[in-house]
Amino acid sequence: MSRPKWIIVCADDYAFNESVDEGVLRLIAAGRLSAVSCMTDSPLWRAAGARLRDAAASVALGVHFNLTEPFGHGERPLAEWIARSLVGAIDSASVRSHLERQIEQFAAVIGRLPDFIDGHQHVHAFPVLRAVVHDVAVGLEPRHALRIRAVDRFFGRTDAPLKRWVIKRLALAGRSAGDPSLRMNKVFAGDYSLTAEADFAGLMADWVAAAPSGSLIMCHPAAAA
Fold first, then answer.
1. How far apart are CA 61 and CA 184, in angstroms?
2. Is 77 exposed, middle or buried (0-12, 13-18, 19+ CB in 10 A)?
3. Taking the CB of residue 141, how many other CB atoms lie within 10 A of it?
4. pLDDT category, 143, cuts 50, 70, 90?
5. Share of residues in the chain with pLDDT > 70 (%)
6. Rounded to a whole number, what is the largest CA-CA distance in the chain?
7. What is the 8-class DSSP label of residue 222?
8. pLDDT at 217
9. Any residues with CB less than 8 A from the CB of 14 and at least 6 apart, and which?
């Protein structure tokens, strides 16, 4: 008999819009998620976060660190962050301020520190940015080291191999700055083209079947809209 395995199924982008929020809350109620990652600098966060706080006793909650979605806090396009991270042209103090503010906004609504940190469009894993995230995570308070999503080891199929390759290469370039003990997952999946034509059901079935114990599958649910 095969041993049971545990898998983290994490919904990203909570507070991105009302359709996403409704989809995530429905999945929590159905017992289909183990984690939710929150965009706490969204203008919807305060109200959306209150709904999540009241519904999410059974799931881990984290900060979906945002530097690219234009919520009005000095965000920049993804391509610019990629280029700047690769050449080291990043103001670490400014990035730290962004992250600390988003953690504070999480705590102000949920009433505690987050369980983990990951990144919108995986910015948390980029060179230089990864070092800042690690430093903030280990320095919040004694005995509270936030877990950090690892995106350098993929498993299962994807219909977007170039996208997977770019994410992995950026994560590998930034990995030396981090401490493996902070990782919340051993391997990672859930990446695909995010198009209506994609066989998401087939991909999800493959990820669940292929997932080793300790893996994380991200998803991006939303109610029909």
1. 12
2. exposed
3. 7
4. low
5. 95
6. 54
7. -
8. 98
9. 20, 21, 24, 36, 37, 38, 39, 48, 52, 64
d(CA 7, CA 173): 26
What is the per-residue pLDDT across 203-215, written as a single tens digit (0 to 9) for each?
999 999 999 999 9
DSSP 25: H
CA 180, 186, 190, 193: dihedral to nearest 10 degrees? Answer: 60
Question: Which residues make beta-bridge pairs with 151?
Answer: none
Q: For residue 39, which phi and psi values (nearest 5 degrees)? A: -90, 90
Q: In a 3-state reduction of DSSP, which class is residue 118?
A: strand
**Of all helices (H) and strands (E), which one includes residue 53?**
helix 45-55
Helix (H, G, I), strand (E, B) or coil at 142: coil
What is the pTM (predicted TM-score) of this model? 0.94
pLDDT at 3: 75
Q: Tell me the per-residue pLDDT of 48-84, one tens digit each, with 9 for 90 and over.
A: 999 999 888 889 999 999 999 999 888 999 999 999 9
Residue/partner pairs of 42-50 with CB below 8 Å, 24 or more apart: 42/15, 42/16, 42/66, 42/69, 42/71, 43/71, 43/72, 44/15, 44/16, 44/17, 44/18, 45/15, 45/105, 45/109, 46/109, 48/14, 48/15, 48/18, 48/21, 49/15, 49/106, 49/109, 49/110, 50/109
